[in-house]
């Protein structure tokens, strides 16, 4: 009898341990979803300086839940679907509501409908990503702007200038930061994936130093640093595309399909 208890107890503890591991990525996904919900609530209340950072926190949580699932080997179809639904809220609906509260509401029914165009583009981008995860050949790139980067573009702009712009200038800026990322999300332009970036110093700690420098910049001047990161990532796709075309032209190779 005692021997049976000694055998069953480790098995029971192992089951609880495995359940905890499977629950861990889901906690981060739910946190991501909460950030999107909180962004909508504060945007509706007009507290844009509080609403915008929630999108940034959602981006961090979205990066962590996938990495944790891979590290703990707890990836599942349920987690993938839940993550996509959370991303629609945090990187689709929340940024659109943020832009609406910031400037789209001043343009009438026609132009504030641009927010719905953004939500649709974000949902299409996420659906395409789910289909490409198993068939995509080049893991170094995303096809189309990732929805977290598009949401970060809107959130960083609103966070940097919550009240400075006014009138028609803010309205035009709101339309631009909504429609431009929407078009890029459904485009075929390639954006670098941070998962496979190699700075060339594999035997040193340069990557950790770069991450620490970015964190220090955000802590020191978040309004400036976040805008530079968001728009720098946007421009990097066009710069890399231009360099690729230039190299192909120099080498005489036919352009890729």
Share of helix, binned: over 70%
Give a short account of the largest sheet.
2 strands, antiparallel
- In what order do the strands lie side by side in the largest sheet? 1-2
What oligomeric assembly is this protein in? Answer: single chain
CATH topology: Four Helix Bundle (Hemerythrin (Met), subunit A)
CATH architectural group: Up-down Bundle
Q: Give the total of domains.
A: 1
Summarize the helix and strand pattern as letters.
Answer: HHHHHEHHEHH
- The total count of strands amounts to 2
Proportion of strand residues: under 5%
CATH homologous group name: CDP-alcohol phosphotransferase transmembrane (TM) domain
The CATH class turns out to be Mainly Alpha
Structural class based on helices, strands and sheet pairing: mainly alpha
Which regions have little confidence, pLDDT < 50, spanning 5+ residues?
Answer: none
**SS summary, helix count:** 9
Evaluate the radius of gyration: 21 Å
> Can you tell me the overall shape?
globular
Distance between the first and last residues' Cα? 69 Å
What would the average pLDDT be, to the nearest integer?
82
Verbal overview:
- The protein has helices spanning 2-44, 48-71, 77-102, 108-112, 114-135, 147-160, 168-185, 206-220, 222-251; strands at 141-143, 190-192.
- By secondary structure, the protein is mainly alpha-helical.
- It has a single domain, classed as CDP-alcohol phosphotransferase transmembrane (TM) domain (Four Helix Bundle (Hemerythrin (Met), subunit A)), CATH 1.20.120.1760.
- Helix 1 (2-44) runs antiparallel to helix 2 and helix 3 (77-102) runs antiparallel to helix 5.
- The radius of gyration is 21 Å and the shape is globular.
